[in-house]
Write a structure and sequence with these properties.
5 strands; NA-bd_OB-fold; Cold-shock protein; 42% strand; 65 residues; OB fold (Dihydrolipoamide Acetyltransferase, E2P); mainly beta; 5-stranded antiparallel β-sheet; 1 helix
Length: 65
């Protein structure tokens, strides 16, 4: 799934994403840390990978595999 960064905390590496359907979704630090990214900016488009239970496990840029 994809969305737009609504909030991001550089200190905790947590944030929220506004999904295309308008739903706001939180992502944990572990999902950001799994990405290899160093920073996210507000309004940036990202892809969210999730596990079978629906928990976000990785945050990446849509252009990255």
């Amino acid at each position: 799934m994809q969305g737009t960064v609504a909030t991001f905390d550089d200190d905790t590496h947590t944030g929220t994403v506004l999904l295309d359907d308008g739903t706001e979704l939180h992502f944990p630090a572990a999902a950001f840390d799994a990405s290899g990214l160093r920073h996210l900016r507000l309004g940036q488009r990202i892809r969210l990978d999730h596990d079978a239970e629906g928990a976000v496990v990785k945050v990446t840029l849509p252009t990255l595999p």
